[in-house]
Specification:
CATH superfamily of the largest domain: PAS domain
Largest sheet: 5 strands, antiparallel
CATH architecture of the largest domain: 2-Layer Sandwich
CATH class of the largest domain: Alpha Beta
Number of strands: 12
Distance between the termini: 39 Å
Strand content: 15-25%
Order of helices and strands: HHHEEEEEHHEHEEHEEHHEEH
Strand order of the largest sheet: 2-1-5-4-3
Length: about 475
Amino acid sequence: MMPLPKTSWAGWVPGVCVGLCVPSLILLLVCIAAAVLDQRMIRMAVVQHQAELARSECLQRAAVLEAQLDSQQEKPRTWEQLRDNAAFSSFWSSFRRPARPQGYLAIVNDDGTIVMHNDSRQIGQRLEQGWNNRRLPDVGDDVVRAEPGSLAPNAPTMDVSVPFAIPHSVRGTLHAGVDEKWLNAEVATRQQQGLRHWKWLTGLALASLALSVIGAVYLLRHQQGLTASLTQQTQARIAELSNLGGGLAHEVRNPLHALRINLHILRRAMDGRASLPEDQLLATLRESGTAIDRIEAVLRDLLLFVEPTAGKVVEVDLAAEIRAVLDVLAENLKRDSIAIDSSRCGQSAVVQIDADRIRQMLLNLLTFAQLRVGKQGAIAVEMLVSRANAELAIAHAGPTLTTDQAAHLFEPFRSPVDSGSGLGMALVHVHASAAGGNVRYEQPEKIGNRLVLSLPIGRPVPKERQNELQA
């Protein structure tokens, strides 16, 4: 019988899928998060470095500016006087160039008016109200992100300022600016350099995740296939059990019905309500014994079918067993005028199988062929021996089986002819499988029907052993 498949895999497949995908997904997310954090740290480092350079520039230039103003004999009281000073104008022309061409350098007085600027067009403009609201405390308390305006009219900048004062002279704040567009380009260049190794790590994590997803999809599809196969096999098992139960009921019902009738007859005879001659009494008892034997045979064959075992395995000469079974059936075959051609069974071969079972298998196959071919028919028995298998072919010209009959020939109680318990052909299949072989039904064009029993061969039978077996 078809065993029910185990379903222990059904519970752990989803867990394995999760176990495959989650670590890879976590690794990918960690790589992405670490890459993003690294990019932010690179940006912060570049911005802080540029702010430090701008701050150093402001401090150095403020010191130079203070020294220049303090060295003048007549200290100017206003920035207008200072701009009109030829010496200071010459000094500012060389002094005003910022360290970075993308930046600016400017001086703003106490009331927020630009008094000096490397772009003379900006001199005299006032700083916008709230221009320094967007401070960058992570970079420095003196660093402001300035929107386009008086200090830098064309683009936002990072502004660093340093106050200075000349005693009895002018006061102000020196501003150095870094163009934000240029700063972002510097950041992008450094980030691209730092991103290279993260691309490799992220690519490996992504590949790991892809492989995990592929594995999970494979497992899920495999699970679906197993589930479908399990469902199909379960339905086949249910149908097999239903067929087995129906066939068993049919095979047991007839002898039980005969027993019931015989018991009724015997009861009436014992009660004196009917006279039963001695010969009829014996016939009734024999019929009852036959019914009991039939039920016993059905149950015995059923146990062999549902719990197949290899039995007592010995070395058996298949050709000798064929001849022995043909001798047993000789009287029945002769009675039905059935011709047997066994001329092609001379080659001997040893198979490993239970001796009683191989005889029963051969008897069932030949009985099936006898019932199918009918009276005055012909049966041809042929044995083909190869290095791996010995095949016994039983051919006859009786009615061919339909497609449905051929498909269910070796199932219990599905044989198209009644040859005993209803399990004869099913037992042939079970015993052949237990011995490592198989049995099949064929419909060659010239012959009509052929049953082929294939068994794994052990070794050739020596000639002296053949003589012993034949004797």
